[in-house]
Amino acid sequence: MTSPITPVPNGTVTSAKGFSAGGIFAGIKTPGIDKKDIGILFSKHPCAVAGTFTQNSVVSPTVTLDKERVGPDKQIHAVIVNSGCANTAVGEQGMIDAKEMTDLASAHLGVTSEQTLVSSTGVIGVEIPMALMREYIPQIEVSENGGSEFAKAILTTDKRTKEIAVSFKIDGVAHTVGGTSKGSGMIHPNMATMLAYITTDADVDPNYLQKTLSKSVKLSFNQIDVDGDQSTNDTVLLLANGAANGQKISGGDEASKVFETAILQVCQFLAIEIARDGEGATKLIEVTVNGAHSEDDALIASRSCAASMLVKTAVYGRDPNWGRIFMAVGKSGISINESKIDCYINDIQIVAEGKGISYNVQSVVSALSSDEVRLRVDLNVGSSSGMAWGCDLTEEYVVFNSAYTT
Amino acid sequence: MTSPITPVPNGTVTSAKGFSAGGIFAGIKTPGIDKKDIGILFSKHPCAVAGTFTQNSVVSPTVTLDKERVGPDKQIHAVIVNSGCANTAVGEQGMIDAKEMTDLASAHLGVTSEQTLVSSTGVIGVEIPMALMREYIPQIEVSENGGSEFAKAILTTDKRTKEIAVSFKIDGVAHTVGGTSKGSGMIHPNMATMLAYITTDADVDPNYLQKTLSKSVKLSFNQIDVDGDQSTNDTVLLLANGAANGQKISGGDEASKVFETAILQVCQFLAIEIARDGEGATKLIEVTVNGAHSEDDALIASRSCAASMLVKTAVYGRDPNWGRIFMAVGKSGISINESKIDCYINDIQIVAEGKGISYNVQSVVSALSSDEVRLRVDLNVGSSSGMAWGCDLTEEYVVFNSAYTT
Questions:
Q1: CB 3.0–4.6 Å: which of A243, A381, B132, B322 could bond A17 by disulfide?
Q2: Catalytic residue set of A
């Protein structure tokens, strides 16, 4: 017996039982109101762990270290994260510093280095200021209410934190899944993305945990785009500590199904929030492709559309320029029949059977003025669907990235 | 015996013997000084023909028609081109109109429709104004001095025409290769690109002609990027009419080598001019990747760098942000060893063995202020090289494309 999945009010990465977190401002980033730049996520119970990581050939040593420490035979207690410096492309010092960060955090928390993961995000090519780490990591206080402190500590150019938690019951036992993520430039993830941390108090088989995470990442973080660029530090971690004292979840039953849905909901929420908060963005663009030959076709085509600079600028300019949507779907290389395509903007049909139709221009321009613009492409050649999310491209993205050293 | 390849002063697409061309303003585009929107390229001698076309699944019927009429067993006399309307995504009327355009041009020139090719470029989703075609195509006068008229007639958002011709001698016989192309948005070609027309008076075996064109396109048009988007109308045509009365060129000898070099030079010039004239661009970005495992690796990595929005905005902002160059090379997925990479901006070294080095910031910022910025990445894992070309990304691109209906 399972219950529906419901949102946890003001849910955070510490909403699941047994998780605590905290953050501190050490001066790695420029100061600001309520800014943090080092955070710790902690579970007093050991956690099964799953992770997906950047596919970029240039990889931060933090990712390399985490990959060694994540797996079905590993147990994790903590994650230490800093923002403001990516610890990438700094030579051998990078791995030395990444390891020392986990040494400092684990000593502070009373666990081992091998039970501690590490992420860094910020400028590439600059060494981690370890003196600050040595001074400030031991000062970080973790608590059950510290989820939002941690969410602040992982931000770089983001304008706001991204946090969620949902809960559901399995045979009367309450379970929670919480998470947080950060964006907001260099976003076109491949197999993994940016930074996101998801926690659950469910008791989950580790192999099944990794399978569930990978499947959810494919339909969430891997379907968003801000600027087509892929970070060297992308990481999604899912920690399951079993503190809910519920049954073992290992796939194939009703309890697993509700757990998988909860993980997907959290992943999609955190991914969409990254797209919405894209650098310089004024609008979220949601692209749905229906009637494709396969789910992969639908995912590829929807992402091609969400990632197209010409679609992004058309949405910014409130221009119902469906020729660019056609171009973007077509360049993805999937199998289509042009004369069967229908297009909709916020449910208003503008293309039928591959040709533009008469529509009320004022209605469509007004739809394009919303904070959320939904583009829908019905290919009508099969029965599979897929979704992707992006943001509009504005002058502010250009101004920002021509002045900011990533 | 062959001579060196030399530029033809004020060379155009009609510099090769036996080619003539012309253009007219029919009112498809908004009027402007010296604007043209229909052009004809003509050869009184029948031409062997080679072509490469867009790989986008949404294809203009003009491309579909040209593909039927291009091949080793075909002979071509003329190309009719209009700008301002792409004749794409307009249903069955598109093919009817494309064919009628070739009927009108061939009747005017005294050749057959099957000997006539057609291209259209401009807004997608709008039908060709055939009444204008019927009135104006018969009025187009072609002449040996009309190359620049034709070059004007194919432009859309381009700021200037792109024209070149080079000549060389084979056993004392002068041969010429000329060409013209247009850009300047929706540019990230795949296997073919935009519109480009190349002419030669050499007598060339048709199978060898296609092989030569495909090889040159791979190293020129397929290595440029303005905005990552791929047009539905991309076309490169190479016409060889044999009017120089030289020997047959069919590969494998010294004469073929000089011919191949001339074709590559013309393709690279026309491709680079498209990148330089990218929408909103203020600078040309040339990326060279050396020391790769294979030529394909070097081509992929250089193009990934030239196409990265974060590299483009950094160059615009004169920011020597080599972390973004690393990210872009890494996301291409080629095999690298991070600790061996050296980076240079306009020959000033800024990265050695994967780490930033001290450099004179003023010199590098000043190098980034040039009209042409050369980024060089030495991977030092192999001996292959590749080049790609892009332009910077500016606020003007966003303003332009949020207001313009492609």
A1: A243
A2: 193
Per-residue pLDDT of chain A (406 residues; tens, 9 = 90+): 888 999 999 999 999 999 999 999 999 988 888 899 999 999 999 999 998 888 788 889 999 999 999 999 999 999 999 998 989 888 999 999 999 999 999 999 999 999 999 999 988 888 999 999 999 999 999 999 999 999 999 998 888 899 999 999 999 999 999 999 888 766 655 433 478 889 999 999 999 999 999 998 888 888 887 776 677 777 888 999 999 999 999 999 999 999 999 999 999 998 888 888 888 889 999 999 999 999 999 999 999 999 898 899 999 989 888 888 988 998 888 989 989 999 999 999 999 999 889 888 888 999 999 999 999 999 999 999 999 999 999 988 888 778 755 4
Say which CATH topology domain B6-276 has: L-amino peptidase D-ALA esterase/amidase (3.60.70)
pTM, to two decimals? 0.80
- Kindly report the CA angle at B160 between B122 and A318, in degrees rounded to 5? 40
Query: Min CA distance, A320 vs chain B (Å)?
Result: 9
Residue carrying the six token digits 């016409």: B239
Looking at the partner chain, which of B58, B228, B314 has a beta carbon nearest the beta carbon of A402? B314
Q: In sequence order, what are the residues at sequence separation of 6 or more whose Cβ sits closer than 8 angstroms to the Cβ of residue B372?
A: B283, B284, B286
Going by C-alpha positions, the residue among A169, A198, A172 that lies closest to residue A258 is: A169
Q: Is B125–A322 a contact, with Cβ atoms under 8 angstroms apart? A: yes
* Chain A residues near residue B393 by CB distance under 8 angstroms: 398
The answer to whether the CB atoms of B398 and A403 lie below 8 A apart is no
- Amino acid identity of A293? H
Whether the CA torsion A115, A38, A404, B365 is positive or negative: it is negative
What is the sign, positive or negative, of the torsion defined by CA atoms of B110, B116, B119, B124?
positive
* SS3 label, residue A94: helix
Q: Which candidate, B184, B108, B103, B182, places its Cα nearest to that of B150?
A: B182
B235 counts as catalytic: no
CA-CA distance, B159 to A79, in Å (whole number)?
A: 53
B57–A328 CB contact, under 8 Å:
no
CATH superfamily of B284-403: ArgJ beta chain, C-terminal domain (3.10.20.340)
Q: Among B176, B193, B199, B235, which one carries the catalytic annotation? A: B193
Structure tokens at B21: 């061309």
Of A229, A327, A356, the CB nearest to B331: A229
Domain boundaries, chain B: 6-276, 284-403
Distances (CA, A) of A149 to A37, A109, A118, A162, A279: 10, 17, 17, 12, 22
Answer whether B21's CB lies under 8 Å from B153's CB.
no
Helix (DSSP H) and strand (DSSP E) numbers for chain A: 11, 18
Could you tell me if A181 and A222 are in contact, meaning their C-beta atoms sit under 8 angstroms apart?
Answer: no
CA angle B246, B248, B251 (to 5 degrees): 130
* Separation of alpha carbons B171 and B324, rounded Å: 50
Closest CB to B330 among A57, A309, A356: A57
Assigned token pair, B336: 């690298």
Closest CA to B338 of A193, A185, A61: A61
- Percent composition of chain A: helix, strand, coil (DSSP 3-state, to 5): 35, 30, 40
Instruction: Kindly determine whether residue B326 and residue A231, on different chains, have CB atoms separated by under 8 Å.
Output: no
Number of A:B CB contacts under 8 A? 211
Q: Measure B73 CA to nearest chain A CA, in Å.
A: 29
> Of how many residues is chain B composed?
406
CB contact under 8 A, A321 and B402: no
